[in-house]
Amino acid sequence: MLMRAKRRRLINEAYGKVLEVSVGTGRNMDLYDLRPFDLEEEKRYGRSRDRLITSITFNDQSEVMVQQATNKFLSTELKKPEDERFRGDVTFVIGDAHNQGVIDRPKGGFDTIVQTFGICSMARPVEFLQTLGRLCRQPGEAAATGRGDEEKADQGGQILLLEHGHGKYQWLNNYLDSKAKLHALHYGCWFNKDIDQVIKDSGLKVERIRQYHAGTTWEIVLRPMIATTHNEAD
């Protein structure tokens, strides 16, 4: 299935102030490039990384999951040489990110919001994505890092999703529908959601959609459509 490779490729796009929702036990934790910015890198290679992560917030509804994710992050960082450990702010938040006040919107919003396989367990995925859109940096807001790409910066922050749901073939969707209730009872996951419709209903701007596994695995990049009302943290 090469799912880990798909996670890695998507998360490699994260930069700036990062929020990961539905973090679970931290399966994506070691995929982030959290190396400190190295001024010598540009001297050696004539360029520097433009994906610098400056801060990262991990969120989940489950206190148990957040504790496991915290332990995994600390374990992952301690295995690194000291000069390669993350130097930015790291925050762990327990609660439903959809509820107002659970996630504080930083000044300028989040540059990157990540979620992998979260929509399947949500009762109101459209409203949840709209909340992520408000937490994101809005079009025209200054980016956290000067990447020399004004056009990209003006588009606002990005929402990176890896999800599963209905695919490209009706026979396959019928099969998923027939098994969905039993699967949800066992795992709390409805794997037959209409991801395409959820994305359309969210009103967010679609930058990219890629589908795999007969269309049942969705890799999605979204951006805020227009500047929306938001409350920033002090």
From TrEMBL:
<dbReference type="InterPro" id="IPR050508">
    <property type="entry name" value="Methyltransf_Superfamily"/>
</dbReference>
<dbReference type="GO" id="GO:0008168">
    <property type="term" value="F:methyltransferase activity"/>
</dbReference>
<keyword id="KW-0489">Methyltransferase</keyword>
<keyword id="KW-0808">Transferase</keyword>
<dbReference type="InterPro" id="IPR029063">
    <property type="entry name" value="SAM-dependent_MTases_sf"/>
</dbReference>
<protein>
    <submittedName>
        <fullName>Methyltransferase OMS1, mitochondrial</fullName>
    </submittedName>
</protein>
<dbReference type="GO" id="GO:0032259">
    <property type="term" value="P:methylation"/>
</dbReference>
